[in-house]
Write a structure and sequence with these properties.
Helix content: 25-40%
CATH class of the largest domain: Alpha Beta
Largest sheet: 4 strands, mixed
Oligomer: single chain
Shape: globular
Distance between the termini: 30 Å
Number of helices: 12
Strand content: 15-25%
Radius of gyration: 21 Å
Structural class: alpha+beta
Strand order of the largest sheet: 2-3-1-12
């Protein structure tokens, strides 16, 4: 949904976004493109976006707590010659933004940051040049640059990338760009992206682009694991051919020996005798929370690789998972890039805290479904960031959920 908003602002003309999300991150993206000059209207269940390109009508954008929005939209803001302040809230204020301090000045953009943190003041216009970037911290920076280069009509120019993590997310970005008819670079094994010639769009500005937002594998991963813990549960509207990284949850469910069936109706998961497993989550770090839940209900040790990707999330997710699941009787070891979950198939109810992290709140909720007593989750409303209907969906599935003002009982 956020990528669709970004593509809609840089593609001149009308875009129709069907099956739109309504999470806080989605709302932030819509607000950003309005501030950058897009006209938006919600009608008959779809968003209609009219854009003449990046032409800011405000002097500031606020990305809320969305790491993707801050990293993707900043290069797009830099397409304008106006001075724009970029801000955020919550954990986003503490995340490092040194990338922009280092890269954007190379592209003719003036940048003033708060010692590598928000707020930042940006003034373009961005001029595409041959550059080399570090992809080890996040692929989201690259997503923004690829879109900005396309919007700026880059020609005979390349972006070289060292040690790119989360390659599937870049595949997703390129897929969205293609569907919007934006200029596509040649992808040379994710190590270099070459903009050779300015391509003519498949869609003229007078012809609307219709884009349907895919079902979200990240949110669905918690429901699929819930099926393994307390199912059966059938999840519909997920595309098995999607470029989304988190569809790898299917591989983890199979590795754990869960009961899983995939057919035209959807993906059905039900409990079974599950065993500890090995999983490399380096390219899909958002799966760590549901994977920990799955591992807790397995018998034996589960080894998950990719811990180093978890430091700069809404919380330091590795430590948060270790602390909160310890309260639920699940022992987790951390050893550099490796997490070992000692599964016993049993979880105890406890008072836990989301640490203002949407995925921690959802993980504790799913873990609580078969716990031996009630679980209370403080700051449970963190789920609004990505999956505002999560608790209602659990209730529809038969979970006993109560929603007091400040915490959540399950």
């Amino acid at each position: 949904m956020q990528r669709a908003c970004a593509a809609a602002i840089i593609r001149k003309g009308q875009t129709i976004i069907a099956n739109p999300g309504h999470s806080n991150d989605d709302k932030a993206a819509l607000d950003i493109i309005k501030r950058l000059g897009a006209k938006t209207i919600f009608e008959n269940g779809v968003w209609k976006v009219e854009s003449g390109g990046v032409e800011p009508v405000e002097h500031e954008i606020n990305c809320g707590e969305s790491g993707l929005s801050i990293r993707m939209f900043t290069p797009l803001v830099a397409l304008s010659d106006k001075e724009i302040t970029i801000n955020g809230s919550g954990s986003l204020l503490t995340r490092p933004m040194d990338f922009f301090d280092e890269i954007l000045p190379q592209l003719g953009v003036k940048v003033k940051s708060n010692n590598g943190k928000l707020p930042m003041i940006i003034q373009g216009p961005l001029q595409p040049k041959n550059i080399e970037v570090d992809g080890s911290l996040s692929s989201q920076f690259l997503t923004g640059l690829l879109m900005a280069y396309a919007a700026a009509g880059a020609k005979d120019i390349s972006i070289k990338v060292n040690n790119l993590k989360s390659k599937p997310y870049i595949s997703l970005t390129l897929d969205v760009m293609k569907q919007f008819g934006l200029q596509l670079p040649e992808n040379r094994d994710f190590k270099e992206f070459v903009f050779s010639t300015v391509l003519s769009s498949e869609h003229s500005a007078t012809q609307p682009v219709s884009y349907t937002v895919e079902g979200d594998w990240s949110g669905a991963s918690f429901l699929l694991v819930a099926g393994a813990v307390a199912g059966p549960i059938t999840v519909k509207s997920l595309d098995l051919t999607s470029a989304q990284a988190d569809k790898a949850i299917i591989d983890a469910l199979m590795a754990a020996n869960t009961g899983i069936a995939i057919d035209a109706k959807g993906i059905t998961v039900h409990p079974g005798e599950m065993n500890g497993f090995y999983f490399d989550a380096t390219d899909c770090p958002d799966l760590f929370p549901p994977l920990v839940v799955l591992a807790a209900y397995c018998n034996g040790k589960t080894t998950i690789k990719g811990v180093n990707r978890l430091t700069y999330k809404e919380s330091n997710r590795a430590l948060t998972l270790q602390d909160e699941f310890d309260k639920m009787g699940v022992y987790i070891e951390l050893n550099d890039d490796i997490m070992i979950v000692h599964g016993t198939g049993k979880v105890k109810g406890a008072d836990v805290h989301s640490n203002h992290d949407h995925r921690i709140a959802m993980a504790c909720s799913v873990a609580a479904l078969k716990a031996n007593s009630e679980t209370i989750i403080e700051e449970a409303q963190a789920i609004k960031k990505s999956y505002p209907d999560f608790y209602e969906d659990l209730k529809k599935l038969g979970a006993d959920v109560s929603l007091p003002f400040t915490h959540f009982n399950l």
